[in-house]
Amino acid sequence: MHHSLPMQIYVWSIRTGRLLDVLAGHExxxxxxxxxxxxxxxxxxxxxxxDKTVRCVCVCVCVRVCV
Length: 67
Fold this sequence. Notes:
The protein is mostly beta strands. The protein has strands spanning 9-13, 19-23, 30-36, 42-49, 54-60, 63-66.
């Protein structure tokens, strides 16, 4: 396992620069992120990992996501 690679997704506020949430759950490094256009106040964030899983989370569209 490559423990130096990120296995969490960090969700930051664009307005305040504060960390809002840490999305955990993957057992391997996160390899890709994708947003689904929601058209409302929230949208779907999908992440894939080297652990061969895809996780989906509903998030506010006013955030910046960094891995």
